[in-house]
Amino acid sequence: MRAAALYVIVQLLAYGLDIGTFALLVERFAVAPLWANISAKAVAGCFAFFTHRHVTFDAAAGGRLSDQALRYVLLLIANSVASSAMLALFMRVVPSPVMAKIIADVILIAVSFSLSKSVVFRGAKSGQGN
User: Fold this and answer.
1) pLDDT 10s digits, 9-36
2) Could you give the 3-state DSSP secondary structure of residue 120?
3) In the 8-state DSSP scheme, what is residue 17?
4) Which letter does DSSP use for residue 128 in this model?
5) Do 80 and 46 meet the contact criterion of CB atoms below 8 Å apart?
6) Interatomic CA distance for residues 110 and 121, integer angstroms
7) Spatial distance between the Cα atoms of 70 and 45, rounded to a whole number of angstroms
8) Per-residue pLDDT tens over the stretch 55-84
């Protein structure tokens, strides 16, 4: 239970980086929403990987950094593809690209936690008190 709570807190912080980067790129620099989404996911993903590795799942001692990083990057790519596909879909019915992105990303939170815990940081302690 502690890992899930920590995951949500870290994801909220990472999401602040994600949506902030996305909004900045789209609204200030006129970057196309799908490219901005991929860029924002990369920025937030770097932060989230290291924070989840050391805080959420206490996985620094439970696995090799390179193995975990590879699995995380693969998950991030899959998440970015799914998020971008949903973003493109929701932009057809939601007038704001930022709101469309928020809707798409909220849908993916539970899937991302489950895959992070079972695939990326497998065998880790996953926080105390689970």
Assistant:
1) 998 999 899 999 999 999 999 999 989 9
2) helix
3) H
4) T
5) no
6) 16
7) 12
8) 888 766 667 888 889 999 999 889 888 988
State the amino acid at position 114 in one-letter form.
S
pTM for the whole thing?
Answer: 0.73
Whole-number Å distance between alpha carbons of 116 and 95: 32
The residue with tokens 């949903």 is 86
- 101 token code pair: 């992105």
Per the prediction, the chain carries an average pLDDT of: 86
Tokens standing for residue 72? 């995380």
DSSP 50-118: HHIIIIIS--TTTS-HHHHHHHHHHHHHHHHHHHHHHHHHHTTT-S-HHHHHHHHHHHHHHHHHHHIII
CB 95 within 8 A of CB 29: no
Cβ-contact 83, 108 below 8 angstroms: yes
Q: Chain-centre distance of CA 114, in angstroms?
A: 12
